[in-house]
Specification:
Strand order of the largest sheet: 2-1-7-6-5
CATH superfamily: DD-peptidase/beta-lactamase superfamily
CATH architecture: 3-Layer(aba) Sandwich
Helix content: 25-40%
Radius of gyration: 17 Å
Structural class: alpha+beta
């Protein structure tokens, strides 16, 4: 990209094709409907009770991350957590705030291409290989080709409209895909659409590509931070994003699904001063991820 270095990555201890306790997509309400229909304390920012039950896990996780990972007055950390088994959702005060997507937009484009493929869009083996490269090793050159070939700005707008992603939109400069806008809440809705509503083949293409990503991205970025930080025995499927130095800020994100059944979906998005450097920015996101993991059951 002309103004930013952008990347994404994922690692996994193991990957399963099961959908866990999620309802069947043919009869279940959409991911957006499930998010909007959640009631109770879990949708109130910063509300964690003393008793951690299945109904309160997302709220406990958000509250713990908020308290643990305060990065300073000029740091914005947006948090969203959803439990696919109960439909509960919780978000921090900044959970709906738009931020530059960095490479998180690669998931959006992949969803759009795969959905339109089932409606007759010509998508060849080469295109599918590019999707896997963009999602797995986070190959920006692969994304550049897909962005141009499949009209990335329109794809982002189409998925945002379909899923009701109110903070998501294409970049002001159509050539700069990493400057698309997303929010923590919208990212959780997107993951739930992939996990609960896409056909099995499309879902596994995306999740397997993420789960088999190398530890170092195609651009050489070390991605061992946030949800990706090593935790023995924890099954994860995550996507990282980073971008610097638009408006003298670092955008560093860690998102993904935790557990063998991918029960918990977590989005940690941050906008931090460039003076903190990537090391300082990583510390904030990793502290938040550690707090989230500690608040969730060990074997979801």
């Amino acid at each position: 990209m002309a103004v930013a270095a952008v990347g994404v990555m994922l690692a996994a201890v193991c990957v399963t094709s099961g959908r866990g306790n999620a309802p069947d997509a043919a009869t279940a309400p959409s991911a957006q409907d499930r998010m909007d229909s959640s009631t109770g304390p879990d949708i109130t920012p910063g509300t964690g009770g003393s008793a951690t039950t299945a109904q309160s896990w997302p709220a406990e996780a958000v509250s713990a991350a908020d308290e643990t990972a305060a990065g300073g007055p000029d740091v914005t950390l947006a948090i969203a957590v959803a439990d696919r088994a109960t439909g509960k959702f919780a978000g921090s005060m900044s959970g709906t705030e738009p931020m530059y997507s960095a490479s998180l937009v690669k998931i959006i484009l992949a969803v759009d291409v795969l959905q339109r493929r089932r409606s007759g869009l010509a998508v060849g083996a080469e295109d599918l290989a590019l999707i896997r490269r963009a999602l797995g090793p986070s190959d920006d050159q692969a994304m550049n080709l897909l962005w141009t070939r499949f009209d990335g700005p329109v794809a982002v707008s189409r998925v945002a409209r379909q899923l009701g992603l109110s903070a998501t939109g294409p970049p002001a400069d159509p050539s700069q895909w990493g400057e698309s806008l997303v929010s923590a809440r919208d990212t959780v809705v997107l993951y739930r659409h992939v996990l609960d509503e896409l056909p099995a083949w499309d879902r596994e293409l995306i999740m397997t590509a993420l789960a088999t990503a190398p530890p170092v991205a195609a651009d050489g970025f070390d991605q061992a931070f946030g949800l990706q930080a090593a935790v023995p025995g924890l099954t994860i499927a995550t996507k990282q994003g980073w971008m610097c130095c638009r408006e003298d800020r670092i955008n560093l994100h860690s998102t993904g699904a935790l557990g063998e059944q991918r029960r918990f979906v977590v989005a940690l998005l941050s906008n931090q001063p460039v003076g903190r450097g990537y090391d300082g920015a990583r510390e904030t996101v990793t502290a938040a991820a550690d707090a989230v993991r500690a608040a969730l059951p060990a074997s979801p």
